Amino acid sequence: MDIEDLQTFVAVADAGGVSAAARRLGIAKSIVSRRLLRIEAEIGVQLLARTTRGAALTEAGATFRDHAARASAEIDTAREAILPTGELRGRLRVAMPLTFGPTHFAPVLAEMARQHPQLNVHTAYSDRFVDLIAEGFDCAIRGAYLPDSNLIAKRVGPIRGKLVASPDYIKAYGAPESLDELVTHQALMQGTETWQFLDGDKIVSVQPQGRFKADSATALAAAAAAGLGIAWLPDCITYGHVASGALVPIMTRYPVPPGAAYVVRPPGQHPTRKVRVLTEMLIEYFARNPDVWGLDR
After folding, report:
1. Which of 20, 49, 263, 269 could form a disulfide with 15 if both were Cys (CB 3.0 to 4.6 A apart)?
2. Mean per-residue pLDDT for 79-108?
3. 45 CA to centre of own chain
4. SS3 (DSSP) at 204
């Protein structure tokens, strides 16, 4: 049985249809359909029930999907083991945050592709929560991960942040000195989030209030620079604004608790070498750019 047929079947099962799997694999729908027909003809059992909305696994298909996924993973591991040292090939599918992925992490992926010309790198940039297993990603880069998730996370670097406002806003409304004062100011937020600060050894939560909201940290930084209010943002977003004087750190006696960036991947015994190499490159990137991430403090 052809390994590409197995991998295609797993992609269709996880994506819920031929069209979605074809997009994920980067091949024509007709190729996906032919591979599915070959597998079903080979084992003599219907694995997928075609519907107007896509495809659903039969009982036999659900059982076969797990075995096919394990077999595909074993073959990938075997291929990596016999490749020349350092050489990567195949496809790496990565989910990146839209907020700072294109500006900060995209160069790392580009360098990885340059160093490994036989590797196909497919990146999806979005701030939404991506289901790695259902959507067929090898890994994702996240500013946080769910501790109760079944995903495996590897920390690649810290992410620090701060409260910032423009000089014009401070001149017009003053800079808050306490957490109680902060809630009387215009906050620039992504939604209805809670802001956290360190008060000595304690973490204190504040419910900010404001009229300007955006689902992009970059947009919030621009709004803060325009004098619309106070923003709670990571240093990698505000670094340039602070360096130019467009934004000023405020309430520095109440620092923001440090966060971290993680490479997360689906559960399995060992990460693929592609994911390991990307993880190592990201760790090195954080070490080379401490000022951007606020690590020089």
Report:
1. 20
2. 81
3. 38
4. strand
Question: How deeply is 107 buried, as exposed, middle or buried, from its count of CB atoms within 10 A (0-12, 13-18, 19+)?
Answer: exposed
Distance from chain centroid for Cα 101: 8
Q: Is 32 left (phi over 0), alpha (psi -120 to 50) or beta?
A: alpha
Write phi, then psi, for 19 (nearest 5 degrees): -60, -45
3-class SS at 229?
coil
- The Cα–Cα gap between 198 and 258 comes to 10
What confidence category does residue 74 fall into, taking pLDDT thresholds of 50, 70 and 90?
A: confident
> Could you give the 3-state DSSP secondary structure of residue 53?
coil
Among 96-110, 121-135, 223-237, 270-284, name the most confident range.
223-237
Q: What is the CA radius of gyration of the chain?
A: 23
pTM: 0.70
Q: Which residue has the higher pLDDT, 124 or 73?
A: 124
Cα-Cα end-to-end distance for the chain = 57
DSSP annotation of 246: S
pLDDT digits (tens, 9 = 90+) for 230-251: 999 988 889 889 999 999 999 9
Q: Which residues pair with 247 in a beta bridge?
A: none
CB 72 within 8 A of CB 4: no
Average pLDDT, stretch 180-188? 94
**Cβ atoms < 10 Å from Cβ of 268:** 13
Return d(Cα 23, Cα 149) in angstroms, integer: 27
The sign of the CA dihedral 168, 174, 176, 182 is negative
> Which H or E element spans position 122?
strand 119-125
Instruction: Name the token pair of 112.
Output: 């990885």
pLDDT tier for residue 296 given thresholds of 50, 70 and 90: very low
Residue 53, CA distances (Å) to 16, 17, 18, 121 in order: 9, 8, 10, 29
Residues 34, 44: contact at Cβ < 8 Å? no
